[in-house]
Amino acid sequence: MTIRLPAATALVVDDDEGIRQMLAAVLSREGLAVATAADGVEAVAAFAAQRPAVVLMDIRMPRMTGLQALAEIRKLDRSTAVILMTAFAEVGTAVQAIRDGAFDYVIKPFDIAEILLLVGRALQMRTMRDDIATLHRELSSSYRTDRILTASPRMTELLQTIAKVAKSNATVLVTGESGTGKELVAAAIHYNSPRNAGPFVKVNCAAVPEGLLESEFFGHEKGAFTGAQARRRGRFEQAEHGTLFLDEIGDISPGLQVKLLRVLQEREFERVGGTDLVRTDVRVIVATNRNLEEMVRQGLFRQDLYFRLNVVTLRTVPLRDRPEDVRLLASHFLQRFAAENGIEVGGIDEQAMERLLAYRWPGNIRELSNAMERAVVMSTGAMIVAEDLPEQIAGRPGEDEEAVGATDARPIAGGGSLREQVSRFEARVVAEALARNDGNRMRTAQELGISRRSLLYKLQEYGIS
């Protein structure tokens, strides 16, 4: 295994000189600059001076324990990955340390391959954060928007179409499911268009009471209705020389559909309660999650207005059809909400990311954003774990054990409740797999299709040594 990260530094902390020298030699061969320390006090001083990318540290040391040193290191820099080395009997302590900010832990005596795997993951996470930041800057430069992040070919194609459409003055219909970023598409069109110096005005047609929507669009004259104490400019006037974005266009009434059609055709309108014609120079972009063609067939939406709006149609891509973006967007939202809430979170652990990738996201990007905000707020450690995610994403407690029990119909001795029988069966499966792999935990975890950490939890739970 080769780890190559230019200018990366590792700090090895252990009161056993032999372990320090061995780990320093191994990591040096992998291209890392390695510093060492004999206890927690030296570790904190070395960390303050060199700010390494990753720290390998024993828990039980004189003068200052690894847990105490971890707390001091977190005060200096909460983003550095700290991997703890511990005896099997101290696994519970190490698990709590992860909640307190450690990146992971390894049990002594450890496999060198296991150490390299953990260090590689820690450095890979740092590289991923840098890559996300770079991609963020590139997309912002290309599309002048810092809010559309994607690695999906379908979304990349949509962004390329946006760049072409933006140059024109054509009316655009944006369709797609709720939460897929239709407003972001409209904003990208505006800010890439010749009208980008003008205003970008938004109206959610479903959020305005039907009786007030005409006034919202076109404004009103003084005395036009009860409460109209002065002339008011509508959104068409406010968007002059810019772009007007009408979201949920399928919710407007038939009467307002007629007036909107006239504005699009004639480029003029009257304010509510007025007779003077008001000329308008506005580009209109509309959006809906409803099927306007079906509404036309049902007589709920004017066909002539539909054709007038449907000059160019763009369809947003649901998140379930762009799985490449789940990891990217989850990391983006993690950084955003961590900064907004003043919470230091280093990343998303493997199990939590597996849950995010397996979920179907009926609420699309909006649901992912909400899920990551909750995860940041609920997190107690350096990493987002599955338990921090909403229940419908994280899954029910115990579902893994139930799935294992369903795969084997052999009778299980001892009787008892279903849960007790499943637990005994799982303990037997884990013990047999461990024996087949001569006690090698990494190979056992791979055979069982679970993470190394999950295997260690099960070994401790069932008392398997």
Structural notes for this entry:
- The protein has a 5-stranded parallel beta sheet with strand order 2-1-3-4-5, sandwiched between helices. The protein has a 5-stranded parallel beta sheet with strand order 7-10-13-6-14. A two-stranded antiparallel sheet has the order 8-9.
- The two termini are 28 Å apart.
- The protein contains 20 helices and 16 strands.
- The protein is elongated.
- The longest helix has 32 residues, at 112-143.
- Helix 18 crosses helix 19.
- The protein is α/β, with parallel strands linked by helices and 465 residues long.
**From the helix content, strand content and strand pairing, which structural class follows?**
alpha/beta
β-sheet strand percentage: 5-15%
Overall 3D form: elongated
Strand order of the largest sheet: 2-1-3-4-5
Q: What is the distance, rounded to the nearest whole angstrom, between the alpha carbons of the first and last residues?
A: 28 Å
Count, helices: 20
The helicity comes to: 40-55%
Oligomeric form: single chain
Q: Any low-confidence stretches, pLDDT <50, length ≥5?
A: 1-7, 136-146, 396-413
- Largest sheet geometry: 5 strands, parallel
Radius of gyration: 30 Å
Mean pLDDT: 83
Total DSSP E strands: 16
Quick rundown:
Helices cover 49% and strands 14% of the residues. The protein has 20 helices and 16 strands.
Key attributes of the depicted protein:
disordered N terminus; alpha/beta; 5-stranded parallel β-sheet; 16 strands; 465 residues; transcription regulation; sequence-specific DNA binding; 14% strand; 20 helices
